[in-house]
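for the writeup, i need someone to sanity check this before i put it in the appendix. the sequnce is what the collaborator sent (i think, or maybe the updated version? ugh). structure was predicted straight from it, no edits. if anything looks off just tell me and ill rerun, i have time this weekend
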Amino acid sequence: MSNFTNETNSEWLQQYQQQLKPGFLDEMWSEESLCIKPAWQLLIQQLHSLSPSVFDKPRLEAKRLLQENGTTYNVHSQTNQYLRSWQLDPLPLVLAEHDWQRVEKGIQQRAFLFDCILQDLYGERRLLKQNVIPPELVFAHPGFQRPCDQVRLAISHQLMHFAVDLARGADGQFWVLADRAQNPSGAGYALECRMIMNRIIPEALRSITVHRLYHFYQSWRNGLQALVSQHSDEARIVVLTPGPDSDTYYEHAYLATYLGYPLVQGDDLTVRDGKVWLKSLAGLQRVDIILRRTDDLACDPLELQQESQQGVPGLLQAVRNQTVAINNPLGTSILENPGLLAFLPAIAKNLLGESLHLPSIATWWCGQKTALDYVLTHFEQLVIKPIFSHEPCYYPAMMTANEQQQLKHKIKQMPYFYVGQQQPQLATTPTLIDDKLQPRYYQLRTFLVAEGGAYVALPGGLTRIANNNEGWFQWQTNGGISKDTWILSHEVDRPIRLQPLTPGVMTALSYEGILPSRAAESLFWVGRYIERAEGSSRLLRTIMDRINNQDECASEADQQCLYVLLTGLTLMTNTQPGFTGKDVNQKYKQPNPELLSLVRDSERVGSLVQVLAAFLHAAFSVRDLWSSDTWRTIDDIDDILGQLYCPPTDLGDLQNCLDELITTIMAFTGLTAESMPHESGWYLFDLGRRIERSLLQISLTQSCFNQTLEDTVDHLLQEALLVNNESLITHRRRYRALQQRENTLALLILDETNPRALAYQIYRIQRLIDHLPRHQQREYSAEQRIILATATRLRLATANTLAQRGEGGLPHLLLELLEECNSNLLELANTLHHTYFSHTEQAQQLTSMSAEVSLPSEVNV
C-alpha cells in the first residue's frame, strides 16, 4: 500500500489538485479526505499511475482504431458538412456500484413515468383534463402529432427505448438534464468506446470487475422481437435511417451490423395493402418491425411532414392497422419537451403516486406568469431553451445587453414557447487534454430498453466531455470528447453471446439475400468507381513513368507513343478537352499541369480525386455491409485522397502516391471478395467492377489502334498496354518470340484465363448475371441476351483476324468489335439499372392534413 501512497503524492496528482475549483465536486479526488476515492484506486493501481505519460500509447492507439473503424460524427455547419472523427479519452469515468444502483433505480422509474405520459397524451389525456399539464405546453409543441392519437403498439409498454442525460452536482446528487425519447442516439457509440477500451487497456478491464454491456443489447433484441403480434411466428426487423447525411449515420450502420438487421432508408420501404414492404432485389419482402433512427415528423410525408424525403408514405396507417410496429412509436418527440420538467414532480404523483428518485434540473416554463417573471428577473443566471429541441439554446450571460433585450422581447411575445433552466455546478472528472491531466465537466447519457414488462438499463453509458472548461453545455458539434463509463461490480457478469434468443421469444427471419435495391445500386457503383479509380491511376502511372524515363534525346517514336497515351487518358477519363483540345501541341510538350489537374482538381468531373470522392460517398452509404478489415482499407483510401488534393509537383513523388493507392485498391477488392458473402450484393459489386474495367480497356485500346502508326510506335504502344494491364511478364513467358500485335490482342482481348483481358471480364459478367435474382421465366432475360451476344462475338473472333490491317492501315475488324462490345456494355448497364435499381416515386402530400402551429420566426419545423 505504501507504493500506492507514494504514487498519490506524485507530481501529476499535485498538478491536478491545483486545477480543481473550490466548492466543485470531482469524481476522482476527495476534497474532504484529501485522497483518491476508493472507486478509482483499483484503476490507478493497475495503471501504476495516472501520469499523462502512461496514456501516450493508449491515446494514440485509440485514435488509430477510431480512424480505422471509421467512427465519425457528421457535423453540419453554416458553410459546409464534414465528418469529424470520434474522440475518445483513454481514461474512463469510474462510478461506484452503490452510486449506479441509485441512478439505475431513478432512470428506470423515469422511463416508466414517461411511458405513462406518452400513453396518456395519446390516450385519455387525464393530465390535461386535470390541469396537471397546461394544454399550451403540449398543443404548441410540434412534436405532438395529432394523427398519432389512439395509435398503440400491441404490448403494454409503448416507450421501447429511452435515454437520460445526467450530471452530478456539487452536493454529490445526480441530476437529470434532459430526457431523450424520440430516437435516442449514443448507444452505438458507447459500445464502440467499450470495444476500443478493451483493445487499449485490456489488463485493467480484466483485473477490475466492471459491468459488461452485452446484456443490454440482448435485451434490446428480445424487446424488439416481442413487438410482433402473437399470431406471427417470425419477425423481419429493419433499422430505418435518414441516410448518410444524418449526424449519427455511423451509429445507425454500427447498430444495424451489431444487432444483425438490414439498414434501410425511406425509399427502400413501401406500403401496399396497409402493410410495409422492403423493396429488395428478390422482390417485396414483408417488414414487421422498424427500429427507427428518423425523426417523427419525417417518417410519413402523407400524414406528418409532407415535404419529407426520408419517410415512407402511408407508414402511420400501417401502424394503426398494427401490421407493423415502430420502436419508438411516432409522436414520442413530445416527451423531449423541456417544459415537462417543471411539472414532472406533480405528474409523478398523479400517475405513479411516487416522488421522483432522481431530481430534474430546476426548470421554469415561461407560459406561467410567476415563472416568466422569475426568468426575466434572473436572466443571466439561466439557460433559455425553446420547448422544441431542434432549436438552439441561448446563454444570456454570454450575450450583449442588446441581444438580451431582443431575446426577452421574443419570450414576451410567445412565453409558452420558452423555458428557463438553472445552470448547476457540475462535477468534474480527470481527462487527458493536450498531454495533461485536467478536470473537466461531464455529462452522462445512459440508455434503457423495454423487455418483459420492465426497463433494462445499460450499465454505464456515453460520457461526454467539453474540449474547454468554459461551460458544461458543450456537445458534439463543439468538439466534445467521449469517455467509456465503468460501473464497478462486486461480481463478474456472466458472459453471453448476442445471437441466442431468450426461450419463448419469436425467431427472426434469415436475411440472406435480402438486399434493398438502393443498397444494391450503391454496391454496383462502388464497384464501378473503384475500378475507374484503379484504371485512371494505372494509366497515369504508366504515362508518368515514360515521362520520367525520357530525356532531351528521346526518339520521335517515344514521343509519338507518349502523345497517343496522353490522348487515350483524356478519352478514357472523359475529361475533354484535355489532350484533345486546340492547344494540344503545347500540352504535349508540357503535360505536367494537365496531369496534375487530372489528379487533384475536385471540380473536374472524371479527375482522380473526384472519382475517389464518389467512391467514398457510395461506400459510406452502405457502411453496414463492410467488414472491419475492409473498412480499414476504405479509410486508407480516404487518407490517400487527402494527400492527392495537394500532390507533389514532382512526378516521381506523385508516382509513389499512385503506387500506394493502387496497392490499397487491390487490398480493398481482395478483402471484399474474401469477406463479403457471395450473394446478390457482391454479385452487383463485382458486376460494376467488370463492366467498368471492360469499358476502360476498350477505350484505351481504341485510342492506341485507331490511327496509322509506324511499326516502332505500334510496338511501344503494345508494350505500354501490356504494362498498364499487368500482363507484360505473362506475355514474355508465353510468347518468347518477337512481340507481335496478334499475340498482344490474344492476351488482352480474347484470353478468358487472363484476369485483365476483355474476354475474361465478359465471361465473369455472364456468370454473375446468371446468379442475380429474377422471376421464373423460360426465356433469357434482357441482360442475359445482351451479354450472351457479346460473349459469342468475342469467342468467334480470332487474334490473327483482329490484327489484320485494312484500308488506311487500320485494324477495322478490331475497332468494329470493340465498338460493338462498348455499345453492348452500356446497354447492359442501363438494363441492370431499370431491372434492379429503379425506385418508384415516393407519394407526396399536396395539402396539409394537420393544423398549422404558429412558431417564432427563428423556428423552422
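The first helix runs from residue 2 to 8. The two ends are 60 Å apart (CA to CA).
thx in advance!!
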